[in-house]
Design goal:
Radius of gyration of chain B: 21 Å
Number of strands of chain B: 10
Number of helices of chain B: 12
Strand order of the largest sheet of chain B: 6-7-8-3-9-10
Largest sheet of chain B: 6 strands, mixed
Oligomer: heterodimer
Largest sheet of chain A: 5 strands, mixed
Mean pLDDT of chain A: 87
Helix content of chain B: 25-40%
Mean pLDDT of chain B: 81
Order of helices and strands of chain B: EHHEEHEEHEHHHHEHEHEEHH
Low-confidence stretches of chain A: none
CATH topology of the largest domain in chain A: MetI-like fold
CATH class of the largest domain in chain A: Mainly Alpha
Radius of gyration of chain A: 27 Å
Shape of chain B: globular
CATH superfamily of the largest domain in chain A: MetI-like
Strand content of chain B: 15-25%
Helix content of chain A: 55-70%
Distance between the termini of chain A: 26 Å
């Protein structure tokens, strides 16, 4: 079997299980909220329009945005709770995903329940009154059973939507089938993307089938269908919970959560750290694909335990500093500041830098006689700049632009993979590359020097969360990595994942890196 | 058994959702004031009616005469604007409507069985609401199926598997399940074919006598009322036009309106008699015996 297929299949049980648990929880919560809300909308005509309008409005917010909005909201709530009640709320992972998906699933349930309850034959309602039912008995013994097939159809729609939208929860750090899709997109691993898509579609089809059985049973008043559907759903949920139960035993041993941002190097380093921790017998979880701004806050809040960041990023983004001191001074200052301000430990440098650099195709740079950014300044007005999705809004770009007075004819943002393609095919002339990127050597790019040292250094450093500051096992597992990874080795490992032919998975690249550096 | 005194109900109130629990006596006068603005706004007005225990009374009248509204004031499906309704000497306005309804049987226009419940579950509904023991309920269901002449094998079936006549037999059984002394019937046999209707009417009259029930039945069919009821109340435009025994109402000394109404079944009977005396030469359009009608008892 293809290595990438095998790697994807190995991850499938865990991703699928997490996806099922999240979807079931969100659907259950949505049902619990929607049914009373729909009942209220039926009973109080004045409340009907506002309720339906609000749930419809929620539906128009893109799923990704809804998920993203819950992170700052929960972060603020968590701070408030910590101040008032002395506990914090996890702002990343399960909770924001659950909340967003719950809101998302409400529309079809509320709408169908309202339709179902208002559409009941008036004679049945009057009969319920006349035989002496209380309003509650009328609701549960007559109205709900009669509206049940319509309500069930709404739940069915909601289930399919939820399973689809749950793939987006990867972006707020909740493991789901979306992990296949997002990491696959980043590393251009289409097998991973397709695995995620097929699994999500398959899951949605099965859930729809089982809920359909229940709906049929309710419509035909045949308990066997209802029972078959319910048993199927229960079995599926139990199956998904099984790995979690096993995980519970393990959880007593303590789980280490390794974070990663959303590019290949981060995936590889997270695999490397995870493998070293696992080798000590620790239980390791990964939260991958997090944004630069989110990941540090997640570490400070203890949602993740360890990840690799870059000194220049911390300096400019987290500390809001705009000067560029020498690398050693900067790291010393960062280490002190992190400890003091957040209790975050800077364990040390890995040994390579992943700086933002400006790069051009070799022959183009030679033709224009550009070796440094200073050489580029007079030519820039005729050239196009390509950047990744973050660069143009980062302080590093502002520092670079202002220090040299850079002005390009056009500026365009790309997914990193497409940015390199755009450089190759001449769509852009200059790109914002990463110095540890394997493609620099592979595509014979010229990295422009920075004579004014406008961009700070970007030493890769290992950060530990406050609660892991004195964790001996963690330190013991990670200390051998400090100062051990030269940039050439990192570039090679990155290229294994980023190249188009014979692509490797981040786990394979991490293994390669460990072997090459004799880290086992 | 039932005593209705000076009862008035305006349309404005009937069209609104009835939640009798929220009704209170305050504001009653204000409503009376409003209610007497125009005659046309009343469903029923100034009704006085006594239903002695053990009698079978039929209320007849055309559409919009207020007969169903009057019936529903008895078990508080509709609350009155003015006047008093008493059942067994108790004024219904002071009785919890849920408890009241559980001790009054009710048979519906268009049957009104719960489609999601089996025949047995439909019959058992009021005893179950009253918290009877399971065994007692099961025994009662068997007893009632016998009473309305339905086979015991129908118990686990859903209403949709039964014919219209059979469904209404279940409706009668449901109304009698909690052993009420009083039964209200709203056009109970209106949806049935004539033969089934006749058979079921006679069957119910028999049950009424055997169990010593008091029955108040609404119908638009004067013939049915004449054949089943001890007394007939004729309603028109929300008021009682006349009341009396069938014999009294059929007598010649009634006002014209009543006579016109009572003459109709008599004229029909006479025309039918003429047809059968006219002999085979009469231009008839019959397909002969076995033309379908009456082949099955509903």
């Amino acid at each position: 079997m293809d290595e990438r297929v095998a790697a994807a299949l190995a991850l499938l049980p865990r991703y699928l299980s997490q996806h099922v648990i999240l979807s079931v929880a969100a659907l259950a919560a949505a049902i619990a909220v929607s049914l009373p809300l729909a009942w209220l909308a039926v009973r109080r005509e004045r409340a009907r329009w506002p309720i339906l309008a609000v749930v419809s409005l929620i539906q128009t917010i893109p799923g990704l945005a809804l998920l993203a909005l819950f992170y700052p909201l929960l972060l603020a709530l968590s701070a408030l709770a910590l101040k008032l009640a002395g506990f914090s709320i996890p702002a990343l992972g399960f909770l924001p995903a659950l909340l967003a998906l719950t809101l998302y699933a409400m529309l079809p349930i509320v709408r169908n329940t309202v339709t179902g309850l208002t559409g009941i034959d008036a004679a049945a309602g009057e009969a319920a009154d006349a035989v002496g039912m209380t309003p509650g008995q009328k609701l549960w013994q007559v109205e709900v059973p009669l509206a049940a097939p319509v309500i069930m159809a709404g739940i069915r729609t909601a289930a399919v939507w939820t399973i689809g939208a749950a793939t987006l929860s990867t972006t707020v750090g909740q493991t789901s089938l979306g992990n296949f899709i997002f990491s696959g997109l980043q590393t251009e691993n289409w097998i991973s993307v397709l695995t995620g898509c097929f699994a999500a579609v398959g899951l949605a089809l099965i859930a729809d089938l089982l809920l359909g059985l229940i709906e049929t049973g309710l419509a035909r008043r045949d308990r066997r269908y209802v029972l078959a559907g319910a048993l199927g759903l229960l079995a599926g949920t139990a199956l998904a919970l099984a790995p979690l139960a096993r995980g519970q035993e393990a959880a007593q041993k303590s789980v280490y959560v390794v974070g990663a941002k959303n590019f290949s190097e981060q995936y590889i380093l997270a695999e490397l750290i995870g493998a070293r921790l696992a080798a000590t017998g620790a239980v390791v979880e990964k939260q991958q694909g997090l944004g630069s701004a989110v990941i540090f806050r997640a570490l400070a809040a203890g949602d993740i335990d360890v990840y690799v960041d870059y000194s220049g990023t911390l300096w400019a983004n987290v500390m809001q500093r705009h000067d560029t001191p020498p690398a050693d001074d900067m790291l010393g200052e960062i280490t002190r500041w992190m400890k003091e301000r957040y209790g975050v430990t800077v364990l040390g440098r890995l040994g390579f830098e992943n700086a933002y650099v400006l790069a051009m195709r070799g022959e183009r740079a030679a033709a224009l006689n550009v070796k440094s950014i200073a050489d580029l300044v007079p030519k820039a007005p005729q050239l196009a700049l390509g950047s990744d999705l973050e660069f143009l809004s980062r302080p590093e770009w502002a520092a670079l632009r202002d220090a040299y007075g850079l002005k390009f004819a056009s500026q365009r943002s790309f997914n990193p993979t497409f940015m390199y393609r755009a450089l190759q095919d001449g769509t852009v002339d200059v790109i914002s590359a990463f110095s540890s990127d394997g493609r620099i050597a592979a595509q014979k790019l010229t990295v422009l020097t920075d004579p004014k040292h406008a961009i700070p250094s970007y030493d890769a450093v290992v950060l530990l969360s406050p609660r892991r500051a004195d964790d001996a096992r963690l330190k013991q597992a990670l200390m051998p990595l400090i100062g051990a990874i030269p940039v050439a080795a990192m570039r090679e490992a990155n290229y294994l994942v980023d190249r188009n032919a014979d692509k490797k998975t981040p786990a394979q690249a991490a293994k390669f890196l460990a072997d090459r550096l004799h880290l086992n | 058994m039932i005593d209705i005194a000076g009862v008035t109900k305006s349309y404005r109130q009937t069209s609104r959702r009835q939640d009798s629990r929220r009704q209170d006596s305050r504001g009653q006068n204000a409503r009376d004031q409003r209610a007497s603005d125009t005659d046309a706004s009343f469903a029923i007005q100034g009704i006085n009616l006594r239903v002695p225990e053990g009698t079978f009374i039929a209320i007849v009248g055309g559409s919009g005469s207020g007969k169903t509204t009057l019936l529903k004031t008895v078990n508080r499906l509709i609350d009155v604007d003015a006047g008093r309704v008493s059942v067994g000497g108790e004024e219904v306005a002071h009785i919890d409507p849920v408890g009241l309804r559980r001790r009054i049987g009710y048979v519906f226009q268009g049957i009104g069985l719960f489609p999601h419940m089996t025949v047995a579950e439909n019959i058992a509904i009021t005893p179950r609401l009253l918290g009877w023991a399971k065994d007692d309920i099961a025994a009662r269901v068997r007893e009632l199926l016998d009473l309305v002449a339905l086979p015991q094998t129908y118990a686990p079936r859903f209403p949709s598997a039964l014919s219209g006549g059979e469904q209404q037999r279940v409706g009668v059984a449901r109304a009698l399940a909690a052993k009420p002394k009083l039964v209200l019937m709203d056009e109970p046999f209106g949806a049935l074919d004539p033969v089934t209707r006749d058979a079921l009417g006679a069957a119910y009259r028999d049950i009424h006598a055997r169990l010593g029930l008091t029955t108040l039945m609404v119908t638009h069919d004067i013939q049915e009322a004449l054949l089943l009821a001890d007394r007939i109340v004729i309603m028109q435009k929300g008021r009682i036009l006349a009341q009396g025994t069938p014999q009294e109402l059929l007598a010649d000394d009634q006002p014209d309106g009543v006579r016109a109404l009572m003459d109709m079944p008599r004229r029909q009977a006479a025309r039918i008699a003429d047809l059968s005396h006219a002999g085979p030469a009469a231009p008839r359009n019959r397909s002969g015996p076995g033309d379908g009608i009456g082949e099955r008892d509903g």
